[in-house]
Amino acid sequence: MKRSPTFFSRLTTHSLLTAIVFISIFTMAVRVPASADTWWHLRSGQYIIENQTIFSADPFSHTREGQLWMYPKLGQVFWYGLYAVGGWATVALAVALLATVAFWLVWQQIEANVFVGAFSMALGAIVSSVIWAARPQMFSFVLTALVAYLLHRFKRHNGNLLPWIPLIMALRVNIHGGFAIGFMLMLAYLVGEVINNITSYKDAPVVNWGRLKYLILVIIISVAAATINPHTWRMLFYPFQTVGISALRDFIAEWQSPNFHQPHAQPFILMLLLILVSVARTNRQVDWTDLVLVALWAGWALFAARNIAVFGLVTTPILAGYADLTWTEQWQTWGYTKVPFSTAAIARPKSKIQNLKSKINWVLLTLIIVAALIKISIPLRSDINLEVEQESLPYYAVEFVKNERPPGPMFNSYNWGGYLIFKLWPDYLVYIDGRTDLYDDFFVRRFLTVMAAGDGWEQILTDDGINLIFIESDSTLAKFLRHNPAWTELYRDKMAVVFGRVAPLP
Amino acid sequence: MSILPVKKNYSGDFSTQNLLIGVTFIAIFAMAARPPADTDTWWHLRSGQYIVQNWTVPTVDPFSHTQAGQLWIDHGWLAQIFWYALFAVGGWAAMGLALAALVTASFWFVWKQIEANVFVAAFAMILGTIVSSIVWAARPQMLSFLLTAVVAYLLHRFKRHNGRLLPWLPLVMLLWVNVHGGFAIGFMLMVAYVMGETVNNLTHHRDDQVVSWTRLKHLLLVIVVSLAVVVVNPHTWRMWLYPFQTVGISALRDFIQEWQSPNFHLVWMQPFIIMLLLTMVALARSNRRADWTDLTLVAMWTVLALFAARNIAIFGVVVAPILARYADLVWVKQWQTWGYTSVPFSTVTV
């Protein structure tokens, strides 16, 4: 009996390339998983597990202590659970797994030859990798890909999976404040399909008016589902409140417009331009939903650098689809009937050469897996994680405070607030940290006045009862404090400095 | 069936179209008539005064005590004389009017490149004007702004109308290198055309006028001649290196706002996003393959604008005719899709 070829008996170039893409994404995503915000998420998750309660009053800062803190907390429990079980290695693997799952959902939306698809996936992954870290937004990332996939199925394959969306939104609203992204995707589809219908668009499947009503119904039910959380209807306003904090937009890098002088922001330009060229060079009119999605997320990405990640995720299938069309049309213009690298060109009958190629592919895949394992093993090591922590965070200054226990309350750098919550709470409560939704505009600007040693900075510190200051060594405030007789320098290294009040306030 | 945009002759009766053209240019002039001084205007005026009074272009710095006597490439010497003369003769009013006239003249050259119905053209012109208005001030770079539009116009004529105006380009570059260090923009436009037309030829692009290989050689010759003539300035060959030296100053990129990436939280930066996205939509919906020169120009100035906010102004000038051309095609195609044989507001023949 003749056996049909299986994945293991015959590894085609197509399959090899697919494997390489996913191995690359997973490998790229295995990194030292802690970002500045990871620390307070872990502490919050720990607090919930240890106290068996989803708290809503802030326990971590002395400036907002006891006040309402609405942040969704399910994601924090997950991250802390992983951290408690397997440390940073488990957390890092989970980040990589989530990134890979998200791009598996993207892959499912791609309708292009495998080479164009793989290139688009790799570019999309690089573009969106700017936010990959152990934070609840990684779940938002996966759920964005999932909602995009369901909407894609709904539009292009008459899929009937839309009833899952309200359930996803109910989950998402309890994991991360970025649930608004789901609504934006649905509205983009709604707007795009309305225009497709009005403009009598015929070059791609269009959702007819009858099915559009169904989508509207799903959006309405999703809004209702988003109230299923500890803060009920208030969460519906949460995204607007966060985006509305102008100090956030002015001073926090990820909420600012991207700085394209930094290399990690530049792949976004490349992707945007490739999309522009692809949609411009195809011989057919582009689907309005695709245009609305690209325009929406390009616009948002230019407003706030953090949105670049969603741009990468949402526009990868669009880039692949139109790049493939452009590729095919170009070869046809040159008079070729057979298009290189197209799916049809790859699917050749089995032959001796094919068998040899299969063996070479296996060797290549083995080498790639070995290289990936070597790369992956590095960020999983606890000594490497400690090394990164010591190099990028005020590890030694924290050790000093832990050992010497100078009197608080503490005024601290915004960037280190989360780390200090993880390391020093409950002995010390922070002044401010990365929980941007907790601190209002007035408070953040007051904080910045002190950091810049602006008018009245000493009075603010006195009014807030501050006895301990934990800030960057090269900050403006540090330079002023060194010459201020009311303060004494307790500790200093290249990164951090700790000042204590000479005569502590009661 | 191909759709070939044809520019209509708007002269004759005072029609709605002519009224719209009049309104567009009056609006641009009125928008550009503003207090002309920005922070750099002042030292340009002083420098112009120095040149007029001493009949010499300074090659060493006379104005600071930290760099006194050291080499200073005063790249905008001719423009500084221009602005100072205006200031001396008519004060700020003359400068304000000159600024408005320069902007309007620039957009007249943009208008001459537009092949679209007058409503789409007026919209693209106004949007381009708003986008580029962020750099308007009494500085030598306003002459760069005008010369950008002139070079773009000459290249447009060369490509789309078999124009024979290329020999003017070296003369324009000769003037440009003596009025502002931004003369590199002229070379970038020429290189964009060479690249775009090369790819057009390689990809057998047929939907637009394509510059043949033979005519491309003419353009390459013009670029070489232009490179040679830019040494005709008080600082001779050093001006070749000047643009690279300026862009290479990292402190400039780190601390001077106009050399940084645009901050789109500022309202006056946002029209750029609208223009970029509208251009993308127009290119995508035009139902034909876009010309590679158009794509190269849009891509080049998008990248440069995202790297340094000051380049947004050039994006507005260079991209406005491209936006208008493809938006007009989209407009026509859409009415055809709806089954209309007559397209409202259109000057396009089918």
Give an overview of the whole structure.
The complex is a heterodimer of chains A (506) and B (350). In chain A, a hairpin with a 3-residue loop joins strand 3 (487-492) and strand 4 (496-501). By secondary structure, chain A is mainly α. Chain A has helices at 13-29, 38-51, 74-107, 114-128, 137-156, 164-172, 180-198, 209-225, 238-243, 246-251, 266-281, 288-303, 308-333, 343-346, 352-380, 382-392, 395-404, 417-424, 441-451, 457-463, 476-482; strands at 410-412, 468-472, 487-492, 496-501. Chain A folds into 2 domains: 13-25 and 100-344, no CATH class; 393-501, no CATH class. The longest helix of chain A is centred in the N-terminal third of the chain and has 34 residues, at 74-107. In chain A, helix 7 (180-198) packs antiparallel against helix 12 (288-303). Chain A is globular. Chain B has 350 residues and is mainly α. Chain B has one domain. Chain B has 13 helices and no strands. In chain B, helix 3 (77-113) runs parallel beside helix 13 (312-337), helix 6 packs parallel to helix 8 and helix 7 runs antiparallel to helix 12 (292-307). The longest helix of chain B is centred in the first third of the chain and has 37 residues, at 77-113. Chain B is globular. Chain B starts with 15 loop residues before the first helix and ends in a 13-residue tail after the last helix. The chains are: A mainly alpha (506), B mainly alpha (350).
